[in-house]
Amino acid sequence: MTDLGSSDRLAAALAHLGSTIDARAKEGDASKSWTAKLLAKGPESCAEKVHEEGMELAEAVRRESDANVASEAADVLYHAFVALRSRGVSLDDVAAALEKRQGISGIDEKASR
User: Fold this and answer.
1) CA distance 103 to 106
2) Record's family (predicted)?
3) What is the CATH number of the domain that holds 107?
4) Which end of the chain is more exposed for a tag (fewer CB within 10 A), N or C?
């Protein structure tokens, strides 16, 4: 089994993705931007896309190539970011939630909810 690798490259890609989503949201032209189109439909529609993409990722993990798994994971991350934007939840909010979990067993963290 391969390690996850360096998080630096992913962090840079996610920072770029977040900036791009913010820019598309501010431009707001649903005729030119898939992001603006999704955001115009609201959080419910964004949630449906996250669900759909999550199911596609799960299927890829089960049966498809590593390249397809990576592609579907990228789709999930993109749609999750758009959904966050649709709700006004910042990446800083997500980072804070992750930081609270650092050093805590996933089993213990889940039991505390």
Assistant:
1) 9
2) Belongs to the PRA-PH family.
3) 1.10.287.1080
4) N
Residue with the two structure tokens 């999550």? 54
Percent of the chain with pLDDT over 90: 85
pLDDT > 80? residue 1: no
> In sequence order, which residues have a C-beta less than 8 Å from that of residue 44 and are 6 or more positions away?
none
pLDDT over 80 at 97, yes or no = yes
Gap between the Cα atoms of 55 and 77, Å rounded: 13
6-45: buried (b, 16+ CB within 10 Å) or exposed (e) per residue? eeeeeeeeeeebeeebeebbeeeeeeebebbbbbeeebee
Range of the structural domain that residue 90 is part of: 34-111
**pLDDT value, residue 6:** 85
> Does 28 map to a domain?
no
List, in sequence order, the alpha helices (H) in the chain.
7-27, 34-41, 43-63, 66-87, 91-101, 106-111
